[in-house]
Design brief:
Blueprint (H helix, E strand, L loop, with lengths): L6 E2 L1 E4 L1 H10 L5 H11 L6 E6 L2 H9 L3 H11 L4 E6 L12 H13 L4 E4 L10 H10 L2 E7 L8 H14 L3 E6 L6 H14 L4 E5 L6 H10 L4 E4 L13 H10 L2 E2 L4 H17 L14 H4 L3 H13 L6 H14 L9 H15 L7 H7 L12 H8 L17 H7 L5 H9 L1 H16 L1
Parallel strand pairs: 1-10, 2-3, 2-9, 3-4, 4-5, 5-6, 6-7, 7-8, 8-9
Helix pairs in contact: 2-4, 2-11, 5-6, 5-19, 7-8, 8-9, 14-15, 19-20
The chain binds cobalt (II) ion.
């Protein structure tokens, strides 16, 4: 089929955001990202992920770098390439819900600073948490991409994923992404899922996967065979393992199969050389192991979650409890309605599983766990454990409305509090209230010196 129907596949290179996040903890400074971006500009890639996810957090907290300037400069370096960001639904680039008015301000500011494509996801896949973001993007005229989180559980079926994609299309998104944040999707499922999506929705389909289990390239190819329109990949120095399928290899292999990406392999190779020298310069932030790790095929616990858990337990001298916690994680997931393991739910599940093992099952119910059970994050994919829910509700009713309905407007207050600041600066205060003062202090010192 592929050979007689040459088809265009759009490449989104995600080296500058997820690549950096997956391999060197998002620590790459703007000047070094720009070196790579300038080389990427005329490679023929359709899009580049440059912002969102952890970038805002790391810019403010560690790098003391203006996150807005980062978005702007990267767009300027690649004017012909669509700049994409990852936005955590109503959580924006943080870990809990914001009021709708802050969501509008944030999306407008991101668009103003150069973001063309917004990939929206919600950790619970509750599409109501996408709603306001989608409406705000519509106002800016930019592209909205609704993501369905790929995970494995007894309640996650092809039909379930497809119905989520349909819901997103009904809400008006311009494209749908399969967000396989843990690299769990296998080539057969990728083929089946994309085939089903292509039948069910009209908007283009975009695959995001990682290579943790070594299946990334196979899954990308099978997805394209099934009609996937867009693929995420990274330049070779960032590819594989905790990273993603490789841009150059995909471009080469797709061509052999009659799929055209419009990319220039020579130019990509030059960009890759630049990316390699940048990655080498950030060696100190590399995880001790970032290769393929197939344990996940058995444990279904993402590599990033495993490595955080391992280092936490090492710090607490409790590494001997690791196996018990690994066994406890699926039980907690089940109690919490089989939520996917992605920011912030992965942190919530791991923390509760650790409490359960160390102190006895649900001797302590962490605040975040309680809020999840109360429905404050939204509707979970499967039903939650009713007994636990009763315990935390203490006679009250669970939240069933769109969670942000319960958050009063925040912007007027913020404006009053920070009268001489731009929207962009106020948003830094709104999103990271604890880190903002240190950040602005450091910026002031920088300017003075
Ligand atoms: Co990812």
């Amino acid at each position: 089929m592929a050979a007689d129907q040459p088809k265009k596949v759009r490449i989104f290179d995600i080296t500058l955001r997820d690549g950096s996040q997956s391999k060197v903890a998002t620590r790459i400074k703007l000047e070094d990202l720009l070196r790579v971006a300038r080389k990427m500009a005329d490679t023929g890639i359709y899009g580049a992920e440059t912002w969102g996810g952890a970038t805002f957090d790391v810019c403010v907290r560690y790098l003391r770098e203006d996150p807005w300037e980062r978005a702007r400069k990267l767009k300027e370096a690649m004017p012909g390439v669509k700049s994409m960001m990852l936005i955590r639904g109503q959580n924006l680039v943080a870990y809990s819900n914001f009021a709708d008015d802050v969501v509008y301000k944030f999306v407008h500011a991101a668009a103003r600073n150069g973001i063309d494509v917004f990939r929206i996801f919600d950790a619970l896949d509750d599409i109501r948490n996408h709603e306001t973001v989608i409406k705000a993007i519509k106002e800016t005229g930019k592209i909205s991409e609704g993501a369905v989180c790929y995970t494995i559980s007894p309640v996650h079926t092809i039909e379930k994923f497809v119905s989520k994609a349909r819901e997103l299309e009904d809400k008006g998104v311009d494209q749908v992404a399969i967000k396989d944040m843990a690299g769990l999707i296998d080539p057969a499922t990728a083929f089946e899922l994309v085939s089903s999506l292509k039948k069910a929705v009209k908007v283009p389909i975009h695959l995001h996967t990682h290579d943790n289990c070594g299946m990334g390239m196979m899954s990308a190819l099978k997805a394209v065979e099934a009609g996937c329109d867009m693929i995420d990949s990274v330049l070779s120095p960032f590819a594989g393992g905790t990273g993603h399928p490789c841009t150059e290899s995909l471009v080469f292999a797709f061509h052999q199969f009659g799929y055209e990406t419009g990319c220039d392999l020579n130019k990509l190779t030059e960009a890759a050389a630049e990316a390699k020298s940048v990655r080498m310069a950030y060696k100190e932030f590399e995880a001790p192991y970032s290769g393929v790790d197939c344990r996940m095929l058995v444990t279904q616990i993402p590599g990033g979650v495993m490595s955080n858990l391992t280092s936490q337990l090492r710090d607490q001298n409790a590494l001997d409890r690791l196996e018990e916690i690994i066994d406890e994680i699926p039980r907690v997931r089940e109690d919490l309605g089989w939520i996917p393991l992605v920011t912030p739910t992965s942190q919530i599940v791991v923390a509760q599983a650790t409490f359960n093992v160390m102190l006895g099952r649900y001797t302590i119910i962490a605040n975040h766990t309680a809020n999840l059970l109360k429905g404050m994050y939204g509707e979970t994919p499967g039903p939650v454990n009713k007994e636990l829910q009763r315990r935390v509700l203490k006679g009250e009713q669970p939240t069933t409305v769109r969670p942000a309905e319960l958050i009063p407007p925040m912007w007027p207050e913020l404006q009053k509090k920070f009268p001489n600041m731009t929207d962009e600066e106020i948003l830094i205060h709104a999103i990271f209230p604890h880190e903002a003062s240190g950040y602005f202090e450091a910026k002031k010192l920088n300017r003075a010196s």
